[in-house]
Amino acid sequence: MKRLFLANSKGGCGKSTLTVNLAAALAGKGRRVLLADCDPQLSTAAWCERRPQDAAPVEWVVLRKLKRLAGFQPPAGIDWLLVDTPAGVHADDLGKLLEPGDRVLVPMLPSVIDLDASERFLADLAGTRPVAAARVKTGLVLNRVRADTLSARAAVERLAGQPFPLLAQVRDTQAYVLAAAMGKGLFDYRSALALDRQQDYTRLLRWLQRD
Ligand SMILES: Nc1ncnc2c1ncn2[C@@H]1O[C@H](COP(=O)(O)OP(=O)(O)OP(=O)(O)O)[C@@H](O)[C@H]1O
Ligand SMILES: [Mg+2]
Question: Which domain range does residue 116 map to?
Answer without folding.
Answer: 2-209
